[in-house]
Amino acid sequence: MKARFIPLFALFVIVTAGATELRPLPSPPIIGATSYLVIDARTGHEIAALEPDKAVAPASLTKLMTAYVIFKTLQEGQIQLSDEVTVSEKAWRAEGSRMFIEVGKRISVEDLLLGMIVQSGNDASIALAEYVAGTEAVFAEMMNQYSQSLGMLTSNWVNATGLPDENHYSTARDLAILARAIISEFPEYYQWYSVKDFTFNDIKQPNRNNLLWRDDSVDGMKTGHTDAAGYCLVSSAERDGMRVISVVLGTSSPKARIDGSQSLLNYAFRFFETRLLYKAGEEIATARIWKSANEVSPLGVLEDLYITVRRGAYDSLESVHNIPAVIEAPVAEGQPLAELNISLDGETLVREPLRALADNPAGSLWQRTVDSVSLWFE
Q1: pLDDT in tens, 251-261
Q2: Does 242 sit behind a cis peptide bond, omega within 30 degrees of 0 on the bond before it?
Q3: Over the stretch 264-302, which tens digit does the pLDDT of each residue have?
Q4: Is residue 291 among the annotated active site residues?
Q5: Where are the alpha helices (DSSP H) in 76-196?
Q6: Fewer CB near the last or first residue (10 Å), C or N of the chain?
Q7: pTM confidence score
Q8: Which one from 88, 97, 120, 236 is the annotated catalytic residue?
Q9: Is 120 a catalytic site residue?
Q10: 222 catalytic per annotation
Q11: Catalytic residue from among 63, 88, 170, 297
């Protein structure tokens, strides 16, 4: 952003980029879904939506939540990928899609995960749930606990498979939050969502996400279908460093969910972009620190700060640094001292604390005395 600075006392600084006339943004495609949501995976910015908070049956998209719990359990060292799980009769008798495990056989956690992720095996899902929690019902309690911790506030899980139950539901928004968490927290496991087929017990089954064959930028995630849920798909794609997540629920056919998801992904990449605003540790502004060893402290962000905007809008962003007139020492590195606001056409897009990039201890007795007197006149 090209910027000019307009100081206003010590309270704040306004940075304005050169304005560019923007063309009207086209409406998202109409895809015949009950609900959908498209977000940028890095920033969480909402790109397109249709009733994203409507509670619906999630079908086998449930297995994303099941996988998240398993991934967490692996991360915490409670189980290992090489652990062998004895298949129960309940798992063996599972209805719907299966990886065809046999009762009493011992199957590795890794194979069960692949059977659940690639083949959407209900039998694999139940076997994993029982191994981690003892029973599927207790595992569902774990699913709900993790769901709440992620901020998925309109979801309730009663099983690990997605088989129909009136108390088993989620939303496009919650599923987008979940997909984003899997991608960011477990990159080593996320790669399994791009596996196109998996062979177990001499039975080779393809991944049901046909976008993996249609679009090279797509590398996940999960399909789902029941009569109540319709045909659903959570998909994720990356192009030129930008990752987009699409959640499409309640379409009428496998083709409709694929075509609709493809249209939404194309819309997101065509009309939006994600840009780096500021690097971690980069000086964005300075603040006057009273009674301090150093007169000013550099301010910035501790992690790279990105923003998602419609294409062509980046040069029209406005940045406001709200810096209090009086900040007294001592200041600790990482301490929030001010606020950064990024807006477009009067709408706030980003609100982020500006933090001290270094310690600034209290000054000498002389410095503190001089500043104390000066503050009387502020």
Answers
A1: 999 999 999 99
A2: no
A3: 999 999 999 999 999 999 999 999 999 999 999 999 999
A4: no
A5: 89-92, 109-117, 122-133, 136-149, 172-185, 187-190
A6: C
A7: 0.91
A8: 120
A9: yes
A10: no
A11: 63
